[in-house]
Amino acid sequence: MELYKTVRKQAEAVQVIEKSRFIAHVCPVESREEADVFLAEIREKYKDATHNVPAMVIGDKSQIQWASDDGEPQGTSGAPMVQMMVKEGLTNLIVVVTRYFGGIKLGTGGLVRAYTSSAKLGLEAAGICSVRELAELTVKIDYPHLAKIQNMASEQLDLDEADQVGEENFSNFRIANIQYTDKIGMKIQTLPGSLKNVKMLFQNITSGKSEILSQEIVREKV
Fold it and tell me: With CB atoms counted within 10 Å of each terminal CB, which end of the chain scores lower, N or C?
């Protein structure tokens, strides 16, 4: 099940509107403290800019929504960016749009469009992704079974298929990590509702000889 949508990575995007240069800085964060650190870094790096306008949405349920206009007319920059992110269902991120004034005033509507469009360009550069809960197993197997398991593994979990057939009818898994010692140690990821099926699959492939060392629920960007 999708928990929320966010951005995959930190990114920047630039556009020029009526001679003003807008630079959107986007960063995924997990807390207000992380967001404040990123904002401070941008303000220091671009301290010669006319404005550094921040907007953040944080929390699984978007509990924290905060913005500042940083000297722009009230309600023309930070707040519209927050509203856009909430409308898109995005959380756990901060966007800071830096503006170097080019001498031409944009007006209230023009400012709203300039800041939200800059933020959208930044979001596109950062990549929108889903955060889901995955079941992660640490499994130990014998070397002769490695090739077959690798052939059955997927590069990415087919989430569309899982949503269609139901996690309980899904046995897709991916290999997150492999260690080579006296036996093969690997981290396997699947959907929580598919855990029973994947465990059974490994037992069948290894004739009951696979050893599950640990299992936990993790959050991953997919």
Answer: N
